[in-house]
Design a protein that fits this description.
Layout lengths: L7 H13 L4 H10 L2 H10 L23
């Protein structure tokens, strides 16, 4: 069976429902599972490097990140 591509926006919305206390942990886990969180994480992990997290190596630029409040 073909699975749809994970939608990061919908996955984030499911997570935020849990953070607000709108749903139980079991319900949010079910929503994340059916929303394709595993596929999204596998794709991210496949594109990651083996270098440990930390400051950028010499010659690399730090990734820009802006928190959402």
């Amino acid at each position: 069976m073909d699975r749809p591509t994970p939608d990061a926006v919908k996955l984030l919305a499911a997570w935020m429902e849990w953070e607000r206390g709108d749903v139980t942990p079991g319900r949010v886990m079910a929503n994340l599972k059916t929303g394709g969180l595993r596929d999204l994480l596998e794709g991210l992990a496949a594109g990651s490097t083996d270098r440990a997290p930390g400051p950028p190596a010499q010659g690399e630029q730090a990734a820009s990140w802006t928190p959402i409040t």
